[in-house]
Amino acid sequence: MSERRASSASTSERVMAAVHRVSVLLPLPLAGTYDYQLPDDMTLAPGDFVVVPLGAREIIGVVWDTPPGDVAAEKLKPIVERLDAPPLGAELRRFIEWVAQYTVTPTGAVLRMAMSVTEALEPPRLSFGWAINAAGRAALADAEAHGLTAMRRRVLAAATDAPPLPAKELARLAGVGAGVVQGLERLGLVEKVPVAPRVDGKPPDWRRDGLALSREQAVAARALADAVAKGGFSVTLLDGVTGSGKTEVYFQAIAAALAAGRQALVLLPEIALGVQWLQRFERRFGTRPAEWHSDLTQAERRHTWRAVAEGRVSVLVGARSALFLPFPKLGLIVIDEEHDPSYKQEEGVTYHARDMAVVRGSLAKFPVVLASATPSLETVVNGEQGRYRRLHLPERHGLAQVPQTRVIDMRREKLERQRFLAPPLCAALAATLAAGEQAMLFLNRRGYAPLTLCRHCGHRFQCPQCTAWLIEHRFQRQLQCHHCGHQETVPQFCPACGESETLAACGPGVERLAEEVAQRFPEARLAVVASDTLTGPRAVAELVRSVEGHGVDVLIGTQMMAKGHHFPLLTLVGVVDADLGLTGGDLRAAERTFQLLHQVAGRAGREERPGQVYLQTYMPEHPVMQALIANDRDRFLASEAEERRSHSWPPFGRLAALVLSGLDDDGVDFVARAFSRSAPHLRGVEVLGPAPAPLAVLRGRHRRRFLVKAERGVNLQAVISAWVAPIKMPSSVRLQIDIDPYSFL
């Protein structure tokens, strides 16, 4: 493939030179490339980054392999300059085109994901930071005499222990505003100094010995390493129970990639999952890998993007967007927790990182590893049909045993008013704490309560921008919408009837659960784990250290703590509302609930101490609960597969969602009727809708949805493209196309 593409690139270069024009793809939602004049003194090849004029501005684009068009030469604008940056490789360009075609998205919109840090394309700039000087140290030593405020003391103390930092980062480190740093500069206590360019850390040492592996682990590790050494495309499912040591096994594949001089990419579903993962990686390879996630500073993103493109990054661990980084020597992708729904991007270019990782491996001819204790039904079916190989780890590592799972039938329990923990779970929690062990209470609902209403008039607090209730966050005294971010202070009076002291919190969130545990067990040390209580990797790392050091007795949290964590003293897991994910009309509701609860249960008893799991449910007879009690995943998946096969739902059929949205509901309905009139009537294709989406208003935009259901052999993208193309869309209405939708809100 590489020789053929190299020949193609050479042909493209000759054509460019002959006609003095090039095709440039811009990182904009545009369907194709633009032609530009090639200056006589400039030589370009496909993949080069260039600056080109677009209207009254200049923009960075990529020279593309597409043959130039026949625009009159006098109408062409010249390329401004070629940037001194590594070119976008042919493999990544083909991947961008493939993703665009599959997702029915303009190619430029996909290119924008690969060019997410345009500053990295420019030469490194001399940067400056703020550092404490001699006068600042003297003032800090005698703060009272110098009249330093507490905030100024915090900044000087932070600057003493840190290298020179930009004002915003120094202020964030000290927990103050940037104005405090500027005030210290005016007093002459800190000064602006040049910052040395960031130096890459030492590369991972693949020769270091890893942990001792069991026989089953060693067999699986050797198979993965052999696949990497052999080269070529393959997909392997590493299917192991929770605590079976899957991470240590696929570390052997990473070592094989490094030994072959290739780069490795590991995708994780959440930053919270990465804290202990990073510790394991450092123990195995002697250094930390590069990271890619939303909590990086812009300077860190710029450095990492450039280092990846120049081949200076050997291993990178990141969120789903890392899949579009410009690796020149990528030889392995690992998708950890491959079943996790957060791999699906729901806005902009809607893609599933797991599936697109398989595509990137296929195009570049290298192995892909999918790891999970609860693999998705799509992955299981691909294994059964011979597309993927399966390696199985049936036992926990060492002396650890799979925990025993019990169901608490909430229909038979008598709870105290405003209490949410059943007596059997309270008794188990008391016994666990008395034994000096740790417990985890799981409720996948952030905040204090999911609904606030007035007991006098029945008024319910709803988001003004969305068809959703406002969630009370009592720690912050706020009502929040978890869809659009709208916030408002909890009022003293009902806005509908004006009565005071009538507002009631309905139902529990993790904050309310923590309140109950604190009342029942006042001596217990609690930690609430949710995305709004742990902001960033540093906070997660501090929590992990506290739990590992037995500074926490009871963890209370959401799905952030459901997977990846390994705490030896954690022996009890209690699921407060096991039924929470089973409703809502989602075709994957049962599968997702099983996966989530199985992962939560897997946190208990991961070393010598036995674990136990309690599920509070009003539906103990549900197949999900029965499968969890029996620890029979395969039987549940077989039943789930048969149910979907009988109705031709994915993975046995194809599905796409088209969502129209706009600020004016009548305008959206008008366009929806136009779509309905021209809907395709083809064999093997069924169009459902239009209908209001379950979340009918989101961020102030009214939403109407079509679902397109098709047989496996139907070219769904071609059907949708032919349907959409003739319809003239007003600028006030947006269309989002989602191939293989995972969310049905």
Structural overview:
It is a single chain. By secondary structure, the protein is an alpha/beta fold. The chain contains 21 helices and 29 strands. The strands form seven sheets. It has a seven-stranded parallel sheet, sandwiched between helices.
Topology:
Blueprint: H1 2-19, E1 21-25, E2 34-37, E3 49-54, E4 57-63, E5 81-82, H2 90-103, H3 107-114, E6 127-132, H4 134-141, H5 150-161, H6 167-174, H7 178-186, E7 190-195, H8 215-230, E8 234-240, H9 246-259, E9 263-267, H10 274-285, E10 290-292, H11 298-309, E11 315-318, E12 330-336, H12 353-364, E13 367-372, H13 377-384, E14 389-393, E15 404-409, H14 423-434, E16 438-442, E17 451-454, E18 471-473, E19 478-480, E20 487-489, E21 503-506, H15 510-520, E22 526-529, H16 537-548, E23 554-557, E24 570-575, H17 589-601, E25 612-617, H18 623-630, H19 633-647, E26 654-662, H20 665-677, E27 685-698, E28 701-710, H21 716-724, E29 733-739
Parallel strand pairs: 8-13, 8-14, 9-11, 9-12, 10-11, 12-13, 15-25, 16-23, 16-24, 22-23, 24-25
Antiparallel strand pairs: 1-2, 1-4, 3-4, 3-5, 6-7, 17-21, 18-19, 19-20, 26-28, 26-29, 27-28
